[in-house]
Amino acid sequence: MTSEAKVAIVGAGRVGSTLAYSLVTNGSVRDIVLIDASRERAEGEAMDIAHAVSFHTPVSIVPGELADTAGAAITVIAAGAAQRVGETRPELFQRNADMLKRIVPEVARINPDGLLILATNPVDALTYLAVQLAGLPAGRVFGSGTVLDTARLRAELANYFHVDPRNVHAYVLGEHGDSEFVAWSSGNMANLHFDELCRLTGMCSTSEQRSAIEERVRNAAYEIIRRKGGTNFAIASALTKIIEAVLRDEASVFTVSSPVDGHYGIRDVALSLPAIVDRTGVRQVLPVGLSDEEQSRLRASAAAVRKTLESLQ
User: Fold this and answer.
1) What is the pLDDT of residues 100-111, one digit of tens each?
2) Which of the following CATH numbers is that of domain 6-143: 3.40.640.10, 3.40.190.10, 3.40.50.720, 3.10.25.10?
3) Domains 6-143 and 146-311 share a fold
4) Residues making up the binding site for substrate
5) 176 is catalytic
6) CB-based contact 108:100 (threshold 8 Å)
7) pLDDT of 228-278, one tens digit each?
8) What CATH class has 146-311?
9) Do β-strands 269-272 and 3-10 pair in parallel, antiparallel, or remain unpaired?
10) 175 CB contacts (<8 Å, ≥6 apart)?
11) Across the strands, what pairs with 61?
12) Dihedral over Cα of 86, 90, 92, 95: its sign
């Protein structure tokens, strides 16, 4: 049995601690367990965040061990080596795969009824590895994928068109990394397709303009890392929305990373595609319409993730 309002976070670093604080301010959980290889780090972060609880809805936040993932509706894995300046996500894979091999089987054994969400990079390759390590039913293990990249894209386009980003409907698909791409063919705002919208405004009508937008979205993490050493606020917000959708059984659509089983002829890899997320996890991956070029880019993205997986030693 799981507690519908308990979330365990493995990794009390930049992302994990910010996620814990975000969940406190969000008010959608009642119990948070913060777990880290450094017990003192977990204790310190839990103490600091607990002192903020009186300003929000009551939440219990405590440090713990992997054994304390028992009964959690969701366990988020945010542990792992941070991405260094100039380091690509594939270069992270070997370092973080070893950590995952120690954590995932243990969490799956302790809490076989809970969901497992990966936030550690490279998230697509690690999600696929975690699915194999956990041995849980399909959809119960998934990654944050390109949810953050999609939010970055919508913010970028909202600035272009001077509108609320919540009214921009567009997705970044594929790998959360250098091979990701914007699905322009399915994007719209107020039911006005981007081809028409860009033509009317002249802001994103050329391939050069669209490539520039994609480049800014793709390189956003590198720019942030160069300036402050890592990302935390936006990814914590993305994870909070995913967790909220699960706990409230919202059946919301997110571009989370999950194993692809025959979509566009792709198998044996995890990628980010629009998927319905509810209390069961990834309920269904949606068959979004893609142009021939976008399908080619998705297959190239799958090949990039597969190459990363094959590099595992």
Assistant:
1) 999 999 999 999
2) 3.40.50.720
3) no
4) 83, 89, 121-124, 149-152, 231
5) yes
6) no
7) 988 999 999 999 999 999 999 999 999 999 999 888 899 999 999 999 999
8) alpha beta
9) unpaired
10) 122, 124, 146, 271, 272, 301, 302, 304, 305
11) 32
12) negative
Per the annotation, binding residues for NAD(+) are 11-16, 36, 41, 80-81, 96, 119-121, 144
Q: What ranges do the domains of the chain cover?
A: 6-143, 146-311
Which token pair is 55?
A: 């300003």
Candidates 56, 176, 193, 263; catalytic one: 176
Q: Which residues are annotated as a binding site?
A: 11-16, 36, 41, 80-81, 83, 89, 96, 119-124, 144, 149-152, 154, 169, 231
Residue type at 294 in one-letter notation: E
Number of residues in the chain: 313
The structure's pTM equals: 0.94
Which residue reads 């991405």 in tokens?
83
